């Protein structure tokens, strides 16, 4: 059983269609400094509601006192968390999982793949990469969403690109939105980019993960250079 610690809701706000940002203040708890690797996740719980697992969307910070999360609407616990006013208490476990082994990517090109709310642990990874950008080769994010309004962190994409991360967005169900960008699945947009020396990090729906893994391996990326955050 995990140890539980009370954290305080700092802010909540819309992140994209069907997605909400949640920021928890962990000051005064043993959780400070426990987030060691991008891609790790925690358990959150509220009285009378079953616990759930959520990836930390902010980067590891030994002195950091705020953890960010991306909540997908439509389930009991996320919906309850979204409704909490600032100052409310949420019980939080210490971070779990190995996260993404960023050290394996140093000196290599980096391929990032995310769909939907799977961008949250990838966001943590991007922030970690940008802190030591010179340690990596080319860094490309392939980011997929169903509709144009479903891209979380849209206001940060220019910052990521300015920080040396190429962003390729694709929309699988643009409908009549007037979307002028790429369409289809993320793995369809690798193009002719050389990937044999790349290290890949993935998070999203299982069908995307399987499709990307198959495509990368067919293109020469070894299985042991493709990582999930669990």
How would you characterize this protein structure?
This protein has 4 helices and 12 strands. It has 2 domains: 90 residues, Elongation Factor Tu (Ef-tu), domain 3 (Beta Barrel), CATH 2.40.30.10; 127 residues, Nucleotide-binding domain of ferredoxin-NADP reductase (FNR) module (Rossmann fold, 3-Layer(aba) Sandwich). The mean pLDDT is 94. It is 17% helix and 33% strand. By secondary structure, the chain is α/β, with parallel strands linked by helices. Strands 4-3-6-1-2-5 form a 6-stranded antiparallel beta sheet, covered by helices on one side. A 6-stranded parallel beta sheet has the order 10-9-8-7-11-12, sandwiched between helices.
What is the CATH architecture descriptor of the largest domain? 3-Layer(aba) Sandwich
CATH superfamily of the largest domain: Nucleotide-binding domain of ferredoxin-NADP reductase (FNR) module
* Assembly context of the chains: single chain
Q: How many strand segments?
A: 12
CATH domain class of the largest domain: Alpha Beta
Q: Percent range for helical residues?
A: 10-25%
Rough outline? globular
Main pleated-sheet profile: 6 strands, antiparallel
Task: Explain the layout of strands and helices.
Layout (H helix, E strand, L loop, with lengths): L3 E13 L2 E7 L15 E6 L2 E7 L10 E7 L3 H7 L6 E5 L15 E7 L3 H13 L7 E7 L11 H6 L3 E6 L10 E2 L14 E6 L2 H13 L7 E3 L2
Parallel strand pairs: 7-8, 7-11, 8-9, 9-10, 11-12
Antiparallel strand pairs: 1-2, 1-6, 2-5, 3-4, 3-6
């Amino acid at each position: 059983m995990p140890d539980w610690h009370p954290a305080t809701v700092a802010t909540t706000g819309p992140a994209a269609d069907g997605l909400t940002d949640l920021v928890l203040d962990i000051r005064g708890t043993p959780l400070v400094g426990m987030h060691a690797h991008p891609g790790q996740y925690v358990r959150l719980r509220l009285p009378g509601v079953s616990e759930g697992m959520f990836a930390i969307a902010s980067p590891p910070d030994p002195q950091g006192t705020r953890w960010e999360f991306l909540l997908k609407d439509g389930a009991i616990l996320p919906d309850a968390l979204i409704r909490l006013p600032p100052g409310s208490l949420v019980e939080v476990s210490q971070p779990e999982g190995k996260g993404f082994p960023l050290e394996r990517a140093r000196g290599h090109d980096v391929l990032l793949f995310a769909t939907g709310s799977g961008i949250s642990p990838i966001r943590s990874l991007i922030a970690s990469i940008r802190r030591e950008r010179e340690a990596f080769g080319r860094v490309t994010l392939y980011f997929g969403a169903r509709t144009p309004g479903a891209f979380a962190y849209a206001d940060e994409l220019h910052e990521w690109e300015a920080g040396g991360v190429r962003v390729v967005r694709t929309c699988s169900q643009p409908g009549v939105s007037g979307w002028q960008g790429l369409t289809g699945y993320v793995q369809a947009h690798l193009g002719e980019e050389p990937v044999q020396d790349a290290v890949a990090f993935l998070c999203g729906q299982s069908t995307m993960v399987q499709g990307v893994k198959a495509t990368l391996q067919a293109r020469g990326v070894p299985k042991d250079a493709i990582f999930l955050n669990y």
